[in-house]
Specification:
5 strands; 5-stranded mixed sheet; alpha/beta; 16 helices
Length: about 350
């Protein structure tokens, strides 16, 4: 059917105007559809069904994610170096940051799918998927922290290039210092090696601390004081020396235990296996002297703000398309690009 007035007014196909969709989806980045309907009635005197809201979210959010991935695909086709860099420009982020941080992490969210529960034969459990998140953050001239975020479900090569593109737009190529901080996940390391080779690489202090404490409790499962003493010793060595000194301490501890006939060394071996390939990222004494951030709090807060607040929660289950779409919309909201995105007519583009 033809709707000439809709075309004349540049309205998207469907029963909702772009203006109402923009307002409804802005609320949807903060709350589930049920309370959202009450807010729409209170604020605008209208109600939208769950199916309508879901359709709007997937259309607009799908365009937002497609925009990001198309930029990445365009960069992927260009040769690394000047050819890629010439396609990008620094956005209006104020003065170029002297010290720019980049980080990435993953967070799991519930899907609509179920699988057999190995621990309970005959029962099914929810399937969780990992959403990759990335952030670029820095301090302005007044010491206030500023952050830009993104999320996606691509492989590390594609996601990493998208994170690099975001970092370039925030001043990566002009910053005097660039720091890449994350936990020890292999895919995070892949991104650092592919796109941020010259950055100072920092392994999140708190993630290392968790590993040390986990090992302490495995070595002394019934002796909290001894576990605490062992963990404190390791953390003190790490904090006052370096990752190499911690590795030597762990290897000496293992040698002593082996000499006593202690065969329960799996936890200690796991910790050594974790620390050994990451020693170069654990020079915390020098990091502190330089005033670097050594914890991935900004990265973890990105996981919560971008994904956890909206995608996780009692009764929430997501399709792949819906989860990606909502994350893309949330990124525009958090980055302050919401209005700019809607000026690009996403619903009309989705229908094209």
């Amino acid at each position: 059917m033809l709707y000439p007035l809709d075309e004349a007014l540049d309205l998207p196909p469907g029963e909702v105007t772009a203006s109402l969709a923009q307002r409804a989806l802005r609320l949807a980045t903060h709350m589930s559809f049920e309370p959202l309907q009450d807010e729409l009635l209170a604020q605008h005197g209208v109600r939208l069904t769950d199916s309508t809201l879901d359709t709007l979210m997937q259309r607009a959010g799908g365009v937002a994610d497609r925009d990001r991935r198309e930029k990445t695909n365009q960069l992927m086709r260009a040769s690394p170096g000047v050819a890629r860099e010439d396609q990008l420009r620094v956005e209006e982020v104020g003065p170029i940051p002297a010290r720019l941080y980049i980080g990435c992490d993953g967070i799991h969210y519930p899907t609509r799918y179920r699988e057999e529960d190995p621990g309970h034969p005959g029962c099914k459990r929810l399937v969780y998927q990992e959403m990759k998140t990335g952030c670029v953050f820095w301090q302005d001239e007044k010491g206030n922290w500023i952050k830009r975020v993104m999320g996606g479900r691509e492989d590390p090569q594609q996601f990493g290039l998208s994170l690099w593109e975001l970092a370039v737009r925030c001043g990566l190529l002009q910053a005097r210092e660039v720091i890449f901080i994350s936990d020890g996940a292999p895919w995070c390391q892949t991104i650092a090696e592919l796109y941020f080779q010259t950055a100072i690489r920092i392994l999140d202090w708190y993630h290392v601390s968790e590993w040390i404490w986990k090992t302490a409790h495995a070595l002394y499962p019934e002796e909290e004081k001894q576990a605490k003493a062992w963990a404190d010793r390791g953390l003190n060595i790490l904090g006052t020396s370096s990752g190499m000194c911690l590795l030597r301490h762990l290897e000496q501890s293992r040698a002593v235990r082996s000499g006593r006939g202690d065969t329960d060394l799996n936890a200690l071996d796991e910790l050594i296996g974790y620390v050994q390939p990451r020693v170069a990222m654990m020079d915390y004494v020098e990091y502190r002297k330089a005033g670097y951030v050594i914890g991935s709090g900004m990265v973890e807060s990105t996981c919560k703000q971008l994904v956890g607040v909206r995608l996780k929660g009692s009764g929430r289950q997501w399709s792949e398309q819906g989860a990606v779409a909502m994350t893309a919309l949330k990124a525009h909201y958090l980055n302050g690009t919401w209005n700019r995105f809607w000026c690009s007519r996403p619903l009309q583009r989705a229908a094209a």
